[in-house]
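In response to a reviewer's request, we include the raw inputs and outputs for one of the modeled complexes. The two entities were modeled together in a single run.
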Amino acid sequence: MKTSMNELLLTIPLYDLTFITPFPKKEVIYEQVVTTITNEWFDKPTLLLLKSDVEIRKLNVKEVANQLIQDSHILAIIVCKKGRFSLKDETFSLYEALQIPIIHLTGVDHASIFFQQENKIQRYSQLSVEINGFANKGFMHIASNISFAFQTPMIFLDDNKQLLWQTGDEKELTKAQQWINRFVNHEESLLRNKNNPHSNINCDFEYYTMNIAGKLNIYVIVASHLARWQKELIDKFIGLTAVVFQTDELVREQNERLKELFVYELLYRKFESKKLLVKQGKTWGWNLEKPHHLLIIHMDEVPHSDLNIDWLEEMVYFLETGKKERQERIIVFPFQDQVIVFVEDDEERTPNERINVIMEIANWIVTRLSEEFPALNVQLGIGKWYDDTIYLNKSYQEAKMALRFGSTWFENRQIFHINHIGVHHLLTHVHREILYDFCKEYLSQLIKSDTENDTEYLNTLKKYIQNQGIINDVAKALYIHPNTLRNRIKKIEEITGIELQNLDEFMNLMVAVKVYYSFFHKKTEE
Amino acid sequence: MSCNEYYGLQGEHRRQVLSYVIGDDTPVHVSMACNHCLHPVCMYVCDENNFLKRRDGIVVLDSSHCKSCLKCVEACPFQAPKLNPITNRVDKCNFCVERIDEDLRPICVENCITGALGMMTIDTKEIHVNNFQETEIPLASFSTPTTQIIAKEEKHLSLREG
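The model returned the following structure tokens for the whole complex.
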């Protein structure tokens, strides 16, 4: 009885098949299966199916190879062996030159398929096993082997037709790339080509589409001259690859969601169990056993022309790649329109040394980000260092406060450490009404004048304090002449009854101004 | 208050009505409890780390470890945390999280006879924009409260919601 080997190959899991030599397009139809190699010539179309090690070893004997390639009745050789199998270079050249297809079958149980008189095909019931084996072997490995066996390039393109991966003969790959440039980049032509096989467009290649999780498409370009069964096998390969990719994508998405939840818990609540925190951190490769500094990177405004760029992702990627130039262990991730950075620090240091260390790292981050993203105005808030990572949520709140007060008061700085915001930190602990009354006592007349007469007394005082009362610097910051400033200060002194040169009185006024700008000033008033 | 009744609170109120005079001597009354700030000062000042902010934005106090230092009571711009004289621990509005988790509205919203209190889901970006900037009520906004205060409509009848 005549049996088509090609049809049977389609029923064997792809991961169990390895093409040792190229496989011809022509259908292989055999009439008998022989399991041993003898000195005799075969009298009808034969499939040589070798199972024992002794018989398999014979394939590498030159004399045997010479005999086999001369026997016109030998159509193909199947090596059934669980482990590795390879041919010596000289025997491989012989089999390849005479186009004897040799296949290594690692799933030895499947060998029985070739003996069956009636095909008992189970293509789909073993799908889960096939997918698992496929994923373990890897699509690249299998694709390379198919490409070699069918003499076709395989090019994987993403949604934007950008190259993801390719395999195959270099010349064929170049040709395929040219085809992509001519046709895939003009989708209309491509569709016309696909829908109308008789069109005049060059049809050396064709493409398959993989849809991953209903979201993205991957295109696979292969030669179009293949036989029907070869196309079927490639179609099967594409289907399995898509399933594996989809599973990976779903797992990745799930992991992203879990990571998001973990990060939120880490920053907004105290973990009751340190063990759990460390264990969960390890899932993302973070070592949270050791204490960390926490920094928040905040972007003031995104340039309008670049709204479509995900700046957070860009920054995270940049810092992830840039951190290798430093010795510190740094964890970087985006969170709520900001970037969070953890810096491991378990060294014995004095509090001042610890602040200096993190300030130096913060400076490095700001410098590198400013160089890379000059259009972005980046600010950094740093919380206190705690000797236990369960307090990272406290550090996060402090870093946010440092950012908030720092950016309000120290307008020309980019890095704000909670320990450097001084009196602001103290003021957050004071009851709001007391602060409001204090502020009102010293500044009510100035506020009234600013509101009613458009004077700039409060801003003048703010700049005066920020520039340590140096007239030229204050005038420069306000874009006014020093004499104008002197006059304005005189008026402020008249209104408030406070002499700015009197340190005690000036201190009170300074606190009042800081309270006003930090707690009660509405930006719309500016 | 329904809140006191629901939780069996004695000697303290989680919600209070603040009265202000704005503009041309217009009286304004605002019913206020915890504003579940985007940047909660209570979380920042609590040495015991007893506050947490849920993913839905609700700031919850777990007072089981409270040592009554009263830092949060002093620091909150809205006087939301208060000392419970019975337990001698700080207590505050937790937005009825146990009801929220059962898909129910907070008890104050449920029982407000004029429908003045409501709850809605808002985007954090929207909070940044509104943030009490439009109101004339002298409330501190540095902690970015998430409560939205909407001015009373003229000639609006006080009818029970629903």
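As requested, we also summarize the result in words. The longest helix of chain B spans residues 124-130. The beta strands of chain B are 16-22, 26-32, 51-53, 59-61, 82-84, 89-91.
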